[in-house]
Amino acid sequence: MVQEICADIRCLDVAKKHLEGTILALRNFHMLVSAVEQLLRMVEERGYREAAQLFTAVDDLLTLFDK
User: How far apart are CA 42 and CA 45, in angstroms?
Assistant: First the structure.
């Protein structure tokens, strides 16, 4: 019985790890989409200085998805 409980706990632990990774990826993706939307808005408004800073942020966020 103890072995079954431990096996269940290990299974739940793996599921938790995967869920945490998924939540982190979704959070990063949301930040990326928001930054791209802001970047497009800045380009439309001809705010090129702000757009350059946002482009750097987008580039940094894209590195999170290299894995």
Answer: 5
